[in-house]
Amino acid sequence: MSTLGMPGIPVREAARTARAHGCTGLELRVHPDEEVHLGLSGPATDAVRSLLDSENLAISCLAGYAKVAAPGADRPVVDELKALIALAQRIGAAQIRVFPGGDGDARPRIAAVLDELRDAGVRLLVETHDSHPTGAAARSLVDGFGEPDLAAVLWDAVHPWRAGENPAVTTEVLGPYLGYFQVKDVRSRETPTPVPPGEGAVPLDDCGALLRSWSGWVSLEWEKAWYPGLAPVDVPLRAAAAWFDRYVTPSG
Length: 252
Hints:
Pfam families: AP_endonuc_2 (PF01261). The protein is α/β, with parallel strands linked by helices.
């Protein structure tokens, strides 16, 4: 599960919630409002890693906010990516999530951190989001490197579907570049208010059937940080667990 569903809550409490619902990993939002953020001290980073180790929880992903295709200078984006990679390496996360963020050229920015990714044993995941909401669009930012173990795509269940891309097409176009799946649901294409998985319009049954033989991380994203009136994360976690049981061997 993602800590986006528990905004401002200490990692210790988020870990207890994750374990109570049978999760084996935790997706940590990296944000100034959260316990885990860029600039977190070394000892504090080590303490989070030790805590999650003691709870027998892996860190499935660090959900960062770097925008690899944002307009503007390369250096600030590259510096943010390097900071995310360094944090991931120290905290024990194998993956970092980033956004597209615009129509700029992502290639030189990603190329600039490939060695850091390789040395740290960390994979960069570009989310299907904002300027590149479909699987095809998101893959276009990373497939030129030909190294899906280093640069791949995070499939957010909502955005490709809202953009008109069928889940079967998303799965096909991502191929080996599918690195992570966020299960989530919304009321409709026109009303993207989150609802517990299975209660909305996103074709999650189709997604589940397509992912049945896939072995990557699956994480619930519950956008309570953006919709504070949503139910506590326990509610969608129960629905997500039922979906996992039907389709996916749970991994997060």
